[in-house]
Amino acid sequence: MLGLDDLLAWFQKLALTESTRSLINEIRSSGPSRRVGGGRSNVSGRYPSRKMGVTIQIESHRVELAGIYEMEHNDSVLEYFDQPAPIKLGYESATGRRMGILHTPAFFVIRQQEAGWDEWKTEEELQGLKAHNSNRYSSGEDSRWFCPPGSAYAERHGLYYRVRSSAEIDWVFQRNIQFFDDYLREPQTVSVRSSETMIAYLLASPGMTLAAHGSR
């Protein structure tokens, strides 16, 4: 968590307006705006964040947990908050009617060089939502997803709104970081001799599996 001096320095570095500073302070000082619940296709839960010092709600183990692991172990992410206060999205429905809805993104994220809302969904969900109304969710030629009304809201505050899809998740990284999560949470001191022995094993056989290592 950022201390007061660090936060003020960050505000100044990004040259954020007073209204945006107030918005961020409100998000930081408030708890989650809603409690998440599981559904037919989602399994909810909580992740004990070492970075934030609190448990973070997970509405979906399929995508949001992956997002949490990314943020938890990314040094460019300074803070992240689950289920921040709703934001108002304005857009046209598929029939052309003007819509105004309150939407709660999955996370509000403070990074070294930017801050904003991250919304996580499966690729299948996004495809279905785009088919229903491309005015709210759309994709570009590079397969990146966008929420135009979310971006419009965020840009008024000098922030971002980002749609994250399950298709962009690096599952190799996810498996590795979950395997090492306990160690990274409470790093243990390794003796020089043990460290040298492990390095020698790895240099001798860089592709060694855990099963093979256990048989030695």
Write the CATH architecture name.
3-Layer(aba) Sandwich
Number of separate strands: 10
Average pLDDT, all residues: 91
Q: What is the CATH topology descriptor?
A: Trna Endonuclease, Chain: A, domain 1
Our count of domains comes out at 1
Morphology = globular
Q: Which ranges are low-confidence, i.e. pLDDT below 50, for 5 or more consecutive residues?
A: none
| Helix/strand order, N-terminal first | HHEEHEEEEEHEEHEHHHH
Rg of Cα set: 21 Å
Enumerate how many helices there are, as a single number.
9
Strand content: 15-25%
Distance between the termini: 43 Å
Could you give a quick summary of the protein structure above?
This protein has nine helices and ten strands.
Structural notes for this entry:
This protein is of the alpha+beta class. It has one domain (4-173): Trna Endonuclease, Chain: A, domain 1 (3-Layer(aba) Sandwich). It is built from nine helices and ten strands. The strands form four sheets. Strands 3-6-7-10 form a four-stranded mixed β-sheet. Strand 8 (138-139) and strand 9 form a beta hairpin. The termini are far apart.
Primary descriptors:
9 helices; two-stranded antiparallel ribbon; Trna Endonuclease, Chain: A, domain 1; 216 residues; single chain; 22% strand
Which SSEs are present, and which pair or pack?
Elements lengths: L3 H11 L3 H12 L15 E4 L6 E4 L5 H9 L4 E6 L4 E6 L5 E6 L3 E5 L3 E7 L1 H10 L5 E2 L5 E2 L1 H8 L4 E6 L5 H9 L1 H5 L6 H13 L5 H5 L2
Parallel strand pairs: 7-10
Antiparallel strand pairs: 1-2, 3-6, 4-5, 6-7, 8-9
